Amino acid sequence: MATPSLTGLGPLDGLLLVDKPSGPTSHDVVARIRRRFRIPKVGHGGTLDPMATGLLVILLGKGTKVSERVMGHDKTYEGVFRLGIETDSQDADGRVVAETDPSAVTAEQIAAQMSARLGDQMQTPPMVSAIKLNGVPLYKLARKGQTVERAAKLVHLYRFDLLEFTPPDVRFVVECTKGTYVRTLAHDIGQALGVGAHLTRLRRTRIGRLDIAQAAPLDDLLARPALDDRVIPLAAALPLLD
Fold it and tell me: What is the pTM of this model?
């Protein structure tokens, strides 16, 4: 992957680490920052679903040229999924399609399902996703009630731990490769346990060597007069992306 030129860089050529709130899309965050600070070129290094919070890497100016480097890194998430309720989107934003009594499920069963998913696995992306079929995002087809075949893809889980089980809610942490759908992990565990499940909370805490502790809440950033002292300059960012 070519290294972008480090000549002629300005103070707004680099990475901005945002702690995204629940609600806006990643594109919404990009648009707000572009509009607020009048920066012509703004992008992001990997989407978060509207419901999700946490680390969103915003790329500014010539920093947009390293988007693939950012997106290629492993990710860490913390979240909660709820047993007994299945939705069409596999998360809390979707429509409930099935309900089952999950009271017989034990923490040991949940932990065993998590452990069984460590390492390589083939994952089928959900219909409610931004993956495109003939140029059309799958979520647009899903809104019309259509279901199409989706190619399974290889993902890898380095860690998938049960942090707390407060029935019917399961709190967890997962470290995984790019492109892993965490809500699908929750859905699949629900299916395996015979009770269904959907993701209710998700927070991204790491992307490679970039950590949520380095990020600032979106509203705080938008309230600032300038971003210069929050931007990781491209020259400093490149070693973090190796």
Answer: 0.93
Going from N- to C-terminal start, the domains of the chain cover 14-72+208-240, 75-206
Q: What is the dihedral of CA 54, 1, 27, 180, to 10 degrees?
A: -50
Average pLDDT of the segment spanning 106-134: 90
Cα gap 63→42, rounded to integer Å: 8
Q: Are 195 and 83 in contact (CB under 8 A)?
A: yes
Q: Which residues contact residue 52 at a Cβ distance below 8 angstroms, ignoring those fewer than 6 apart?
A: 20, 22, 202, 203, 204
pLDDT of residue 59: 97
Domain 75-206 has CATH 3.30.2350.10: yes
- 129-145 per-residue burial string, b: 16 or more CB within 10 A, e: under 16: bebeeeeeebeebbeee
What residues are labeled active site?
Answer: 49
The Cα–Cα gap between 240 and 146 comes to 42
Q: What is the mean pLDDT of the chain?
A: 93
